[in-house]
Design goal:
Elements: H1 7-15, E1 21-22, H2 33-37, H3 43-48, H4 61-68, E2 79-82, H5 84-96, E3 102-107, H6 115-120, E4 123-128, H7 142-145, E5 150-156, H8 168-180, E6 184-188, H9 205-208, E7 212-217, E8 230-234, H10 237-247, H11 256-267, H12 269-293, E9 298-300, E10 308-313, H13 318-329, E11 331-332, E12 334-335, E13 345-349, H14 355-374
Parallel strand pairs: 1-11, 3-4, 3-5, 5-6, 6-7
Antiparallel strand pairs: 2-8, 7-8, 9-10, 10-13, 12-13
Helix pairs in contact: 4-11, 5-10, 12-14
């Protein structure tokens, strides 16, 4: 199997650690090991005593017990811990789909949601978010995308890259469609918890549907991408068996220090969520003002959750705009061509404390461009 090159990751490999200012990062503000350990006095001694042998294949029991508290109807033995969300996505596609199958995927989206399956010989139909409706999904369209070979529906909520969050009515309609047609519902929930209004938080798909697979990770909601820890939660015995068996050909087991630190992080999920949503809310206020000032240049649909948004350029091409911005200011944005969505949008990240500094640089650049054009 040879998947299509992961365009977004190739772009970051080139620019992420050389650009002076990142304004497109999907993950929120992170922290040091010391800051994380400070949540639990005495934990540094336990870290020193962490055994550096193999860990249990599905994840350390203490970690899985902590993760189970994030769900209503899932137990610790219904969770498989992976090395990041990417490994879990790859494992699900290879475990539960086969060449000739068909699946429906929420688009625009994260490339591995569809490229891995396509490389396997799975047919993919995009379920397109409607920009004119604030990137909303229309569940009535799902029946038109169904084929006799459809085996899975892949969604992302809260959504990357738009920040869209379905209403409970839309979410229930998605689950009802999957149940009616006996589909696997793979629900990418890595931003779940970062809703700006907690009343908007949806249930985990695995809690409401027996053939759902909920994907979680510490990179987004918790802001701990360096721990490289993700997981799936499901009540399906078939998924648990097949994905466990497939993981034997991937990482087998996870990093023991990472699992120990991750257990602390999950036990303090609410504190980390509060930290990251506070940063996002403050930055969103600045973005609202910024896009109001530059309404002639950009179209902005305010996200309802997460730490990223998807912005339309009213004139010009995103690749050119992003390249020139990077060259002249050192600020990195992500053009929409890298998420297979034309060349009119760019992804903006606002989960980090230094966003105001980067945004001020863009603001000055745009003002200078207007002045230069006018003269």
């Amino acid at each position: 199997m040879q998947p299509t090159p992961f365009k977004l990751e190739r772009y970051f490999a080139q620019h992420e650690f050389t650009a002076r200012h990142l304004l497109c990062s999907s993950d929120p503000e992170s922290m040091s090991i010391g800051e994380l350990l400070a949540f639990e006095p005495g934990s540094i001694d336990a870290l020193r005593e962490t055994w550096l042998g193999y860990t249990e294949y599905p994840g350390a029991p203490a970690l899985r017990r902590a993760l189970a508290t994030l769900y209503e109807n899932v137990q610790a033995d219904e969770i498989i811990v992976h090395t990041g969300a990417q490994e879990a996505i790859y494992s699900f596609m290879h475990s539960m789909l086969a060449p000739g199958d068909h699946m429906i995927v929420h688009m625009p989206g994260y490339q591995s949601h569809y490229s891995v399956a396509e490389a396997m010989g799975v047919k993919v139909s995009p379920w397109k978010a409607r920009e004119e409706a604030g990137w909303a999904l229309d569940p009535d369209e799902l029946e038109t995308l169904l084929t006799p070979a459809t085996r899975a529906l892949v969604i992302c909520a809260p959504h990357n890259p738009t920040g869209y969050l379905p209403t409970r009515e839309v979410f229930d309609a998605i689950v009802a469609f999957a149940r009616k047609h006996n589909l696997w519902l793979f629900s990418d929930e890595v931003y779940r918890g970062l809703e700006y209004d907690i009343a908007d938080r949806l249930p985990a798909a695995c809690d409401v549907y027996e053939r759902a697979i909920s994907l979680g990770a510490l990179s987004k909601t918790h802001g701990l991408a360096g721990l490289r820890l993700g997981w799936i939660a499901t009540r399906s015995a078939a998924v648990l068996e097949r994905m466990s068996t497939f993981k034997d050909y991937l990482t087998i087991s996870n990093s023991a220090p990472s699992e120990y630190l991750s257990t602390i992080a999950v036990r303090h999920t609410e504190a980390l969520i509060a930290r990251n949503t506070n940063i996002a809310r403050g930055n969103l206020s600045l973005l609202d003002e910024f896009f109001a000032r530059h309404a002639n240049r950009f179209e902005w649909h305010r996200p309802r959750a997460g730490t990223i948004g998807f912005v339309r350029l009213k004139q010009g091409h995103a690749e050119q705009f992003c390249a020139e911005l990077l060259e002249r200011t050192g600020v990195l944005l992500l053009p929409s061509s890298l998420v297979d969505h034309g060349d009119a949008h760019f992804r903006l990240g606002f989960g980090r404390r230094n966003m105001p500094e980067a945004l001020a640089i863009v603001d000055a650049y745009l003002d200078a461009t207007v002045t230069s054009t006018a003269s």
